[in-house]
Amino acid sequence: MQPHPVPCPAHLIPDATGTDAFHAAYRQAMAQHVVFVAIESEKRQLWTVKADTLTAGSGYTVDDSVNDAVRTAITRLVQNRDVDLDAYAGPIYFMMHGIRSEDRARELAAAVHAALYADLGPLTRAVPPAS
Question: CB within 8 A of 81, min separation 6: which ones?
C-alpha cells in the first residue's frame, strides 16, 4: 500500500472492503500517524465511509468548529436521506452507511478527511449548506 497523502484525494481513498483490507488500511494509517479514512462496499451495492482520528496519535486534535462542521454535514446527509440514519458523527470516529455509489462515497470520504485536517472546502462542496 502507498502512503496516505494528507488530506487524501478521492481517487486514493482505500477500499477497505473485507477484514484483511480494513486491517491493512487501518494499520497503515497508524504507522503513518494519520487520520484513517476508507470506503467499504456493503450488501445491496451500497457503500460506507469510515474515518478514525485515533490513528493520528495522541498529539492530533480537531478544533471544535471542525467537529461541528462535520457533524452538521453528516446530519444534513441523513436528513436528505443520502446516508442511513445510523451515521456516526464523531468527534473521534465517523461513519456513514448507505451511500449509493462508490464515487459519492469517495467524494464524502475525501471531504471528511480534508475537514479533519482543517480544510472545510471539500466538505462544503460535497455537502452544500442548507439554503
Answer: none
Task: Tell me the three state secondary structure of residue 94.
Answer: strand
- Read off φ and ψ for residue 94, nearest 5 degrees: -130, 135
pTM of the prediction?
0.95
CB 27 within 8 A of CB 83: no
Work out whether the CA dihedral 4, 21, 18, 57 comes out positive or negative: negative
Q: C-alpha angle with apex 19: 106 to 117, nearest 5 degrees?
A: 40
Strands of 93-99's sheet in order across: 36-41, 47-52, 93-99, 88-89
Residue 30 falls in which region: left (phi positive, over 0), alpha (psi -120 to 50) or beta: alpha
From CA 131, how far away is CA 126, in angstroms rounded?
Answer: 15
Residue pLDDT, tens place only, 53-101: 999 999 999 999 999 999 999 999 999 999 999 999 989 999 999 999 9
Half-sphere exposure of 91 (CA within 13 A, CB side): 10
